[in-house]
Amino acid sequence: MKALVSHGRLVNVPARWSLMAEYTPADKAYILLEGEVVIRKDNQDIAELGPGSFLGEMALVNHKLRSASVFALTPIRALHFTDEAIAELTAENPHFSSALQKAAEERAARDAG
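Now predict its structure.
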């Protein structure tokens, strides 16, 4: 956990703010600490997530464009990670790398139906 915090930056995001946009390159990820977000794909709300959720990992892990947009429903507090920070974390900690890959696979399977 200490490594995560040292590689991330604490951010506060107002309600209705866009954290990520569908079909854009992946350059960041977040761990949601407080608040709620909505995930939108093709202008349809597909999920709401709260504290403890990892956001943006799928596109970073898979090296693809964002598959959905993320908007703050409420003011949020999150740890923000650049793609470089995620690369450092995965290189330094094989357990983090496999956990991140597993989370991305589980989210992809859930989103597929």
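The chain has a mean pLDDT of 87.
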